[in-house]
Amino acid sequence: MGLALDNYKIDNDKQRRISQEWQDFAYRLALELEDLPHKSLYMKMCKEYPRGILEEARSFVSDSNARSKSKLFMWKVKELKGKIKG
């Protein structure tokens, strides 16, 4: 039985395939934030950061009319991480 993500390819990215759920989430996040050139950053974040923080920041950005969604996302992630530590 194959995974639903087996045939999922990143557009012309040296035939790399998404094999983990967090990779799919990171790619969709980069698309939503209109920041595909930095998809590897989102891959790293999705692998290392708690999903709750990323989901909350994503929701915050989707409700805004920001010119730079990626910058707003990064700011919100930093703010949420600070709340957890402090």
Characterization of this structure:
- By secondary structure, the protein is mainly α.
- The protein has one domain.
- Helix content is 59%, strand content 0%.
- The protein is built from four helices and no strands.
- It has helices at residues 21-32, 39-48, 51-62, 69-85.
- The longest helix has 17 residues, at 69-85.
- The radius of gyration is 14 Å and the shape is globular.
- The mean pLDDT is 86.
Q: How would you sum up this structure in a few lines?
A:
The chain is an all-alpha fold and 86 residues long.
Kindly name the structural category: mainly alpha
- Share of helical residues: 55-70%
How many beta-strand segments? 0
Q: Which sheet architecture does the biggest sheet show?
A: none
Helix and strand succession? HHHH
> Globular, elongated, flat, extended or rod-shaped: what is the shape?
globular
Compute the average pLDDT: 86
Q: Oligomer, anyone?
A: single chain
Question: Number of helix segments?
Answer: 4
Low-confidence stretches: none
Query: Strand-residue fraction?
Result: under 5%
